[in-house]
């Protein structure tokens, strides 16, 4: 369990609050809007109505004591940037800031953010990749070149074992798990049997997985 300072309770911030609550983390939430603060009260340990650009207010929170600070402000970049900078100056351990453009992303990284999330860009990428293939069910980018993909089982793989197909050597990807009727099996061995109705999680270079999917769709 971690202690999280969450600043900004728009749609994105509220979703973050709910997810952190479901994961049993301690959350202090902050926003200028009283209505938004009241809305997240059931999902936080405490929620405050305040202006996060107020240096004295931020200092009173003891930001050094939080494991992470999330700046989820999306509609006021000046406030987001100023809040991020003040958190850094006050000694925050780890700062994650939300960006709404590539320019914002660069400025936030240069002014105190340890990590930047760009929801619109990431969702657009996921949507384009998902809709571009009937095989691709889900996608999680790990780096510029590598990702985890969930794909529908290629027809020519069904009825064979992982070892028999020699997937790693031939396709240069690693099998991380098999989803069967909603359950995920990560105990994968060369004897694991692949079934047509299952989906499979693969880790590999984007080019390798794309080629595998393209070959399967021909």
Gyration radius (Cα, Å) is: 22 Å
Number of helices: 9
> Looking across the biggest beta sheet, what order are the strands in?
3-2-1-4-5-6
Q: Could you give the count of β-strands?
A: 11
Shape: elongated
Approximate strand percentage: 25-35%
How far apart are the first and last residues' alpha carbons, in Å? 47 Å
* Class derived from helix and strand content: alpha/beta
The helix content, as a percent range, equals: 25-40%
Note the run of SSEs as H and E: EHEHEHEHEHEHEEHHEEEH
Low-pLDDT segments, ≥5 res: none
The major pleated sheet works out as: 6 strands, parallel
Average pLDDT confidence is 90
Summarize the structure.
With 218 residues, the protein is an alpha/beta fold. It is built from 9 helices and 11 strands. Helix content is 37%, strand content 26%.
Task: Output the keywords.
alpha/beta; 5-stranded antiparallel β-sheet; 9 helices; 11 strands; 37% helix; 26% strand
SSE blueprint:
Elements: E1 3-7, H1 11-22, E2 26-31, H2 34-40, E3 46-49, H3 55-60, E4 68-71, H4 77-89, E5 95-98, H5 102-110, E6 115-117, H6 119-131, E7 136-141, E8 146-152, H7 162-165, H8 167-171, E9 173-180, E10 183-185, E11 199-205, H9 206-217
């Amino acid at each position: 369990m971690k202690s999280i300072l969450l600043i900004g309770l728009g749609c994105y911030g509220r979703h973050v609050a709910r997810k952190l609550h479901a994961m049993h983390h301690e959350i202090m939430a902050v926003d200028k809007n009283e209505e938004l603060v009241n809305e997240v009260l059931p999902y936080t340990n405490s929620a405050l109505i305040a202006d996060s650009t107020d240096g004295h207010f931020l200092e009173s929170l003891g930001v050094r004591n939080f494991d992470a600070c999330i700046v989820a402000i999306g509609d006021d970049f000046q406030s987001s940037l100023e809040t991020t900078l003040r958190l850094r100056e006050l000694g925050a351990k780890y700062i994650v800031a939300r960006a709404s453009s590539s320019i914002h992303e660069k400025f936030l990284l240069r002014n105190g953010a340890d990590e930047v999330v760009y929801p619109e860009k990431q969702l657009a990428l996921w949507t384009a990749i998902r809709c571009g293939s009937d095989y691709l069910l889900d996608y999680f980018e790990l780096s510029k070149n590598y990702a985890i993909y969930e794909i529908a089982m290629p027809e020519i793989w069904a009825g064979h074992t992982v070892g028999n197909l020699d997937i790693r050597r031939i396709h240069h990807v690693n099998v991380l798990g098999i989803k069967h009727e909603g359950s995920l099996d990560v105990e994968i061995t060369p004897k694991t049997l692949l079934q047509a109705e299952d989906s499979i999680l693969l880790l590999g270079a984007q080019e390798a997985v794309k080629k595998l999917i393209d070959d399967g769709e021909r």
